[in-house]
Design goal:
By secondary structure, the protein is an all-alpha fold. The protein has a domain of 38 residues. 55% of the residues lie in helices and 0% in strands. The chain has one helix and no strands. The longest helix has 33 residues. It is elongated. It starts with 24 loop residues before the first helix and ends with a helix. The mean pLDDT is 91.
C-alpha cells in the first residue's frame, strides 16, 4: 500500500456486524513487525534531532 484516504460518514445501519478476516499468523506478525520498525525509526529520528538541538544549545 502506498496511500490511504479516509472519509468519515454517518453510519447507515446497512451492516449490523462484520467479521475481520486474518491471514496466516506468520504473515500477520510480519506486517506488525514492519509497522513497529517504522514507528521506532521515526522515534529514533526525532530523538536524534532533539539531542542534536540540545547539544548545539550547550556548545561553547
Amino acid at each position: 500500500m502506498e496511500q490511504l484516504e479516509i472519509h468519515f460518514e454517518p453510519p447507515t445501519g446497512e451492516f449490523e456486524y462484520f467479521e475481520i478476516k486474518r491471514s496466516d499468523l506468520a504473515e500477520e506478525l510480519d506486517e506488525r513487525l514492519d509497522v513497529f520498525n517504522a514507528i521506532l525509526a521515526g522515534i529514533r529520528r526525532r530523538h536524534d534531532r532533539v539531542k542534536s538541538d540540545q547539544d548545539s544549545e550547550h556548545a561553547p
